Amino acid sequence: MFVDKFGKVAMSIWNLSPDVAMHHMLIALRPGPFANSLCMQPVASLDELRRRAAKFMQLEAMIEFKN
Known about the structure:
Number of helices: 4
Order of helices and strands: HHHH
Number of domains: 1
Oligomer: single chain
Distance between the termini: 22 Å
Strand content: under 5%
């Protein structure tokens, strides 16, 4: 998943500012419900971003299962 890959790259950069990491993460997201929700209700931390991403992944899995 994108968030996991981004997290690994971000962790490999020494002294990376969380604000810079979050900015680049949001720019790299494809348009869709998750990106839209982040624009409407920005997150305060990368941990909150991971939690919200996990919720959207669960929602997508549930929708796929029902179809």
